[in-house]
Amino acid sequence: AADGQLEGKLTFATTNFDRGEYGKLLPRVLAWIASYNDPEPVVLRRDSLSQTSVQLLLQEAEEIQEPVSHSPETVHYMVVGADGIIFDFEGRQLDPRDRNECTDRPVINANITTDPNITDSTEFFTGDSIRFSCPPGFEVTPPEDTIVHCETDGWSVYNPSTDQTIWPTCEDATPTITSIEPPKAPFGCTSTVTIIGEHLSGINEVLFDARVMSVTLVDAEHIEVNIPNNFPLGTYDVTLKKSFVPDTIELDKFEVGSTAVMETGGTTLTDQWKLISLQRTYTDPIVICQPMGARGLDPGVVRLHNISSNSFLARIAEPIGAVSVEDGGAHGSEVISYIVVERGVWFVGDGLQIEAGSATTNRKLSSGFSTATFQADYTEAPVVVTQIQSYNEEGFSFTRQGPTTESRWSFALQERQGDTSGHATETVGYIAIEQGVGHLGDANRRYEVGILRDASVESQLNFFHRYTTDPHVFAWLGSSNDKDMVILRFRDTNSDTTTFVMQEEPRLVEGGIVVHAPEDINYFIMEGDGSVCGV
Prior knowledge:
Elements: E1 13-16, E2 28-33, E3 43-49, E4 53-59, E5 75-80, E6 86-87, E7 117-124, E8 127-133, E9 138-141, E10 147-151, E11 154-158, E12 169-172, E13 176-181, E14 191-198, E15 203-208, E16 211-219, E17 222-227, E18 234-236, E19 238-242, E20 245-247, E21 254-256, E22 259-269, E23 274-277, E24 285-288, E25 292-293, E26 301-305, E27 311-317, E28 334-342, E29 344-348, E30 352-361, E31 370-373, E32 383-388, E33 398-401, E34 408-414, E35 426-433, E36 436-439, E37 446-455, E38 458-462, E39 472-477, E40 487-491, E41 497-503, E42 519-526, E43 530-534
Parallel strand pairs: 25-40
Antiparallel strand pairs: 1-4, 2-5, 3-4, 5-6, 7-8, 8-10, 9-12, 10-11, 13-14, 14-17, 15-16, 15-19, 16-17, 18-21, 19-20, 22-28, 22-43, 23-27, 24-28, 26-27, 29-30, 30-35, 31-34, 32-35, 33-34, 36-37, 37-42, 38-41, 39-42, 40-41
């Protein structure tokens, strides 16, 4: 026995029955205090009872003292089996009756030719308690914790997890698959494929072709296969291997996998070429690296060069006459962000569709716009940001954007004001995203995409999200309402806002004030650095 403590703080003494398990019927327990070690009134109470143990406690009246305590007392007890057999403290039978000793093996009504195997047999005074298992490739029903007891009327079956008395059988447990759910929009750079079927609990290996995959067993009907970073999209033969039963499951090939399709980052640039290395390797990347910050007063744009699978060159170019690099000047350090997207149409994060591509032109804004067709179908015009990808003609040049529809985008080249000469053919890259807000597969990588309509020369954008860190700003003028040379810059970016500034050549500024017609500003605001996977 043990001290009893009130106020819900009870210390129990657990007495395990000498007989072992009593079967599914609870025994009868008689118990009493057999000592007088403490004069305070106390009662003996039973807290719980099972087939294998009883829990007892001592309890005093609550008003006697606080905290309540009682000296240890000796407790005597007697356990009476539910079948009327009485055992003493040594487990000896006191009142034997006529019983079936269950000397024969139990008769098993298996539904296949192979009966369950007896894997554990413990001899008790009244006979056997037997556990079953099945040969490899089969499962015992009821489960393997089924116990067959010798009772007064012969063998009986009790499954403690279900409280059923069903004879165990061995059933065919060959894994079968009913469907496979490939990822629709993987999160981050990993994703999962869910295999749905039957008898999957023993699966310990899944192969896509010859590649061993990491798996997580959800339950007997579901397995999650973890798709690692940059696992290539494709169709694969699936092989399931179950413990002790190597078995190839015949399946239709299916498409699975995710790959890094974009990444974002930030750096600083000057008028000197800077090599920017990418985290991932791409087949045909499109780079947007604008607008640049507004530290310096001279106008300038970011020019790109030598875009490769894992890097690109970038620098700031100023117009001639603005104390630029072309005429021997220099431009100080400016903050820029870059977004790189693999050419094509992708779904990333929470289902965001993002498209990247390019077209060529030598047409300048004074001659109108070139047009190109989107790769994807849109129900409304997406938000488009463009930038020259090639460097076929040196110096200060950039894109101007015209009308965008559900199917087409328009663009032209622009140089310093009044330059009437032609321009070499350049490749113009674009990224198109539908307007909206969400996340890029990580709660800490949120985004918003939109258009700031009819923006003035200086316009503040209030973000939809409140970002944890200053986000990346990708933007460009989405209209050409005024044909004067104008570029877009930004400043004062914080977790809540950024300010866009339209800048013309100094000689176009009247009395120190920039006069330019309102323009639409297309923008992507994205949080965090690094790659994003998609399908």
